[in-house]
Specification:
The protein is of the alpha/beta class. The protein is 38% helix and 23% strand. It is built from eleven helices and ten strands. Helix 6 links the parallel strand 7 and strand 8. Helix 3 packs across helix 4 and helix 4 crosses helix 5. This is ABC transporter ATP-binding protein. Keywords: ATP-binding, Cell membrane, Membrane, Nucleotide-binding, Translocase, Transport.
């Protein structure tokens, strides 16, 4: 099982300002969204998971490997991170070279890396762009290239930082299906994201991070039922959830289709 264990994690960039305060979490097979306002510590947290940063105190174990005892390069075989801004991730002059870089860097032979690259580009719908310069493409396509770069590495754990940035409806649906396929393959998928509707439609577990601490952690439906607690973190439930709450329904509905099915079951 792909597992992450976080034990009493503390982190600060400056001694006078603690960013993360005593976080303890176990990540299992459930797809997990980490939500919270800017400054809550989300990006810092996933950088620590990837060993791009080191804890001030506490431990993070990735499949029993303590991040204090390894490097981001060595962890790359186990955990992949799609950056929020694709411009921070992309550096090659051809799409194919960009997507093949990761697989080659973790030791895949060239033939296998090519096959994995082509598969990933087909998954994101950019196979016809493999010889183009990524910076000749739009931001939404560059985001998909950065996703393909991590898919091609075939890691057991994948973290998406704001996966829906610059995506229209079709782009979001494509990414949603990619995530669901990864989950079906037994991979642990984690995201940090501001899109509450996307979380409701895609992720089983939701963690609310507020001011460096865990405010809520549980099944996504349960977390979104606590509108009063979410307000403390300056968050709102998905639009459908809010609408149904205002209409007086006690149940927590996560999607429009879910609510429609419920109404059909009542015969009205």
């Amino acid at each position: 099982m792909n597992k992450i264990s976080v034990r009493d994690l503390h982190f600060s960039y400056k001694d006078s300002e603690e960013i993360l305060r005593g976080i303890s979490l176990e990540f299992d097979e459930r797809s997990t969204a980490i939500i919270g306002q800017n400054g809550a510590g989300k990006t810092t947290f996933v950088k620590l998971l990837k060993a791009l940063l080191r804890p001030v105190s506490g431990d993070i174990l990735i499949n029993s490997i303590n991040t204090k005892d390894t490097t981001a390069a060595k962890l790359a075989k186990h955990i992949g991170l799609v950056f929020q801004n694709p411009n921070d991730q992309i550096f090659k002059n051809k799409v194919i070279d960009e997507v093949m870089f990761g697989p080659l860097n973790i030791g895949m032979d060239k033939d296998k890396a090519r096959i994995s690259c082509e598969y990933a580009l087909k998954e994101v719908g950019l196979f016809d762009k493999l010889n183009e310069n990524p910076y000749d493409l739009g931001l939404s396509e560059r985001k998909l290239i950065s996703i393909a770069s991590i898919l091609a590495m075939d890691t057991d754990i994948i973290i998406f930082d704001e996966p829906t940035i610059a995506q229209d409806y079709l782009g979001k649906e494509k990414i949603k299906q990619i995530i669901k396929k990864l989950i079906a393959q037994g991979k642990l998928v984690i995201t940090i994201i501001h899109d509450m509707d996307f979380v409701a439609e895609t992720f089983e577990r939701t963690i609310v991070l507020n001011d460096g601490s865990i405010l809520l952690d549980g099944n996504t439906r349960e977390v979104y039922s606590h509108a009063d607690v979410l307000r403390k973190a300056y968050l709102e439930p998905p639009h459908v959830t809010q609408l149904c709450q205002k209409l007086g329904f006690e149940d927590t509905f996560l999607t429009a289709s879910e609510f429609i099915e419920y109404k059909k079951s009542l015969g009205n």
